Amino acid sequence: HTEDLIDQLPLFVAPSSAAMSDDKLARGGAPDFDDGVSDEEVGGVGGLSGDPADLPEGIKKEVITEGSSGDGSSAFWKKPKKGDEVTVHYVGTLESDGSEFDSSRGRGQPFVFTLGQGQVIKGWDLGVATMNKGEVAKLTLAPEFAYGESGSPPKIPANATLVFEVELISWASKNDLFGDEGVVKTQLKEGKGWKKPKLGDEILLAFKTTTADGSTVIEDRGSFDYTVGSDALGHLARACDKALADMKKGEEVSLKCSAEYAYGDEHVNGAIVTLSLLQIYETKDVSFTKNKTMMKKQVKEGEGYDTPKDGCKVKLSVEGATDGSATLAGFSAQTLEFIAGNGEVCDALECAVCEMKKGEKTILTVTAPAAAADAKLGLEDIKTSQVLFTLELVEFEKGKDTWNMSEDEKLDFGNARKEVGTQLFKAGRLSMALGRYKKVSDMFSYIDNYQEENKAKAKALKQACESNKAACHLKMKEFIEAKASCNAVLKEEAQNVKAFFRRAQAELGLKNFSECIADCKKVIELDPQNKEARAVLKQAQAGQKEEDKKAKGLFANMCKALGKGPIPEPGKTAPIGKFDGEEGDEEETADVKEGEATNEE
Predict the structure, then answer these.
(1) Strand 271-280 relative to strand 282-285: parallel, antiparallel, unpaired?
(2) Alpha-helix residue ranges (DSSP H) falling in 245-326
């Protein structure tokens, strides 16, 4: 009866131990042997290296029809790996006389097996692992990769070389996530791109669970926002987070979970979870100082890679403005057209739009409400602690890249952007102004190859922008940064009065009074009529005087303590904190000393 059952199976499937003795069974019924190829080599991308040239000597492969990705494009890197469930058609013949011994095509039923698990003869496990979807190949298998000395009577004699024409129809990618068969992931639909969610990332997820036999729906949450690593999925979070870590946008998978990884005793047979990763939200800090006061969450990807450049015209749709739940009073949805970087809209929109792509949709969370105030949107006076904008970049003009500009074009562009920075500075938009000055300064970092006339103009423009950067930093009380900008100016122009004066102001802010005094004196030396420098000098001298007074008092108090207290005997120290003849606990002190010595030993 057992032999009749075996005859109903494809001849190359591993026979059961009822038909063959244990000593003749070795991965697919071939005799036990050592061919130098370990089980671990079946797997990875396509098993072995995925290259037919890496197949063992006893396996010859000839491609009859090349495969593809299934979407019309060739994708030779996509091959099944160990553990995947593959579906094939095949025709098996004997090399000796060409006689057919088995065919799935003759039965009209494709054959399904799990790759690399010993369910078929070894030549199949290794050969199919090198195939692409849709590929048709001829595999010629030496006896040691087929049925060896035993053969499979009556159709396959001993030591027979077999020839298979195999078509790889498809495969379902499977993965034992925890190595204990508690959660087996099967890919139902491939994703796109290269991004995969990380711990803490926000995603849009579709989630459904059924009983282990698929007959009853346990949960169906549809699509919802989920943070990877949170406990929003309860007991299933561990399995789902593990699966999500290797998924791409658009990918759909099935997780066959044991009770331990699913609902426990509530469903003792486990459950099947279906996950669809619909979107990976990209969250980025777009604030000026990267202090997380303006966080941009991409909810719809844009086109290409380009983003608006400084000075380019953009069209931005502001669809919503809420406090997190309710629409802000006075808000009016608008599609705004403006020049990026000119300060025509609020700081929040300026920061966000320069990080967006055409067609991108974003949720911008602003926790510095003043940066979101914009009369065009009806938001002159915001009372809430946060503002959530819903934005879509409709289109923008692609400006010329600075690296593609001529020297004259760079100088014209740089001067124009510097003037915009000056207007922003006067309007009190200090961070915006600083950004303009910094961009211009960076444009002219390398000017050695410029023509001499243009080199002088570029140097002067860079110097002016560095000096203006210092002015912005001083207004913002960023004294270290202001000092650095002044140093950059003085490195190129050692007698620059404005740089000395602004550095003096920065030193005063840092309470480096002696350095401030030195810079003020230098300014007065270069410009004797400079009243502002004299005023700063007086402040620095007063500050230095106060510091000297404090230092003098501290020194005096230290001196008072000298010579106080009992004089200890040789080899002993006075108890800490005992002065003016106070009695110390000598016995306790000795014990401490002894303990310390013991510890040191």
Answers:
(1) unpaired
(2) none
Tokens of 445: 């970092």
Is 121 designated active site? yes
E-assigned strand segments in 397-535: none
Closest Cα partner for 205 from 278, 287, 104?
Answer: 278
Extract the tokens encoding 190.
């491939």
Q: Give the pLDDT of residue 72.
A: 47
The residue annotated as part of the active site, out of 12, 59, 84, 102, is 102
> What is the per-residue pLDDT for 69?
55
Phi-psi region of 55 (alpha: psi -120 to 50; beta: other; left: phi over 0): beta
CB 273 within 8 A of CB 257: yes
pTM above 0.70, yes or no: no
Q: Which residue has the tokens 């620059």?
A: 496
Catalytic residue selected from 12, 113, 164, 513: 164
How much is the average pLDDT of 488-501? 96
User: CB neighbours (10 Å) of residue 269?
Assistant: 11
* Region 395-415 average pLDDT: 93
Radius of gyration, alpha carbons of the chain: 38
Helix, strand or coil for residue 268? coil
Q: Would you say 145 and 123 are in contact if contact means Cβ atoms under 8 Å apart?
A: yes
Q: What is the mean pLDDT of the chain?
A: 85
CA dist., res. 412 & res. 409, Å (int): 5
Does the annotation count 90 as an active-site position? yes
Amino acid at 26: A
538 within 8 A of 530, measured Cβ to Cβ:
no
**Side-chain half-sphere CA neighbours of 441 within 13 A:** 18
Q: Is 94 left (phi over 0), alpha (psi -120 to 50) or beta?
A: beta
Helices (H), 245-378: 347-353
Assess whether 446 carries a catalytic annotation: no
**Helix, strand or coil for residue 132?**
coil
From 12, 90, 261, 263, the catalytic residue:
90
Pairing of strands 59-65, 136-141: antiparallel
User: How far is residue 44's CA from residue 114's CA, in Å, rounded to a whole number?
Assistant: 15
Q: Which of 35, 76, 101, 218 is catalytic?
A: 101
- Phi, psi angle pair for 437, to nearest 5°: -65, -40
CB atoms within 10 A of CB 99: 10
Sorted by sequence, the CB contacts under 8 Å of residue 554 that are 6+ apart come out as none
Percent of the chain with pLDDT over 90: 71
- Whether 102 sits among the annotated catalytic residues: the reply is yes
Q: Tens digits of per-residue pLDDT, 254-277?
A: 999 999 999 999 999 999 999 999
Catalytic residue of the set 12, 59, 121, 226: 121
Distance CA 398, CA 226 (A): 35
Q: Is 338 a catalytic residue?
A: no
The pair of structure tokens assigned to 231 is 């406990």
- Residue 255, number of CB atoms within 10 A of its CB: 25
**DSSP for residue 382:** -
Tokens coding 351 = 């920061």
Rounded CA gap, 79 and 126, in Å? 12
Assess whether 437 carries a catalytic annotation.
no
270, burial (CB in 10 Å: exposed 0-12, middle 13-18, buried 19+): buried
